[in-house]
Amino acid sequence: MSEFKVGDKVEHRWHGTLEVTYGPFTNTLGGISYLVRLGGREIPLPAETLTPPKPAFAVGDKVRYEGTLAELAGGPVIGATSGEELFLLKFLEGPDTGKGMARKASKLELVTEPALVPVGTRVRVDRAAYASEAHGMVGVITDNDADWTPSGGAHHPYRVKLGGGTRTIWAAEVTPVGDKPADGFEYGGIFYEYGVKYEDRDADEWRFNRSAVHGQPVSDASSVFEGESLAYAVTTYGPLIKQQ
To answer: Is this structure's pTM higher than 0.90?
Structure first.
C-alpha cells in the first residue's frame, strides 16, 4: 500500500485522478484513509483503494500489456461501449507480433528502457533467445547496437563473447558484473586490470602497466604496440576485450 502526502495526485478505480487534501489518518474502522478532492468537495477514501497515478502515455512509447511488450501506435480514444481510454498497440513479441490491437490504458505498463551497457563491459547474460543455456554465464560485450530480433521475440542489442572462448551470442538483457579487481584502472566507465591480456578489434594483444608519466596505464613490451596509453589503445583500436 502506497503512502501519500497532501498535494499528491492519486488514482481511484471509479473516481479517476484525485488530489490528496489531508492524511493519512485512522478511520472509524481502524484502517488508514485520506481526504481527497472530488469536484467541489472533499471525501474520505480508504488508502488501499488509492494508487499512484499512471504515467502519461505517448505514441511511440514501449509498454507491456499483460506482460507482453508492445509499442503505442495510436490513441488515446474513448471506447464506445466501455467508456474507457484505449490505445492502439503494435505487439513486438509473442504470438501477436506485428499485429495492431486496441487495449485499455488501465491495463498498460510503461516500459522505461535503460541506457545501453557500454561495449567492453563484463556482464552476466540474463535473457537470450536460442541460447537459454547461456543464462547466468559471464562474458564481454563486443557490440551493443546489434540489429537482431528473433521471430516472435524481443530486440537483442547485445553481442556477448562468453568466457575465455570464441563463442558469441546475442542477448536481449544483461547485467554488468560488479567484481571489480583491486589492481587496475577505470577508463570510460570500464575497469582494466594491470598485466591482464586484452584483445582489440583486430585480435591483437595488449597488456598495460602503471605509468606515473601518463597518469594512466601504458602498454608493455608484450603488446602489439609498446608504450601507448590506455586511452589511445581504446580510442584507436577498441573495444579491448579481456581474455580469461
So the answer is: no
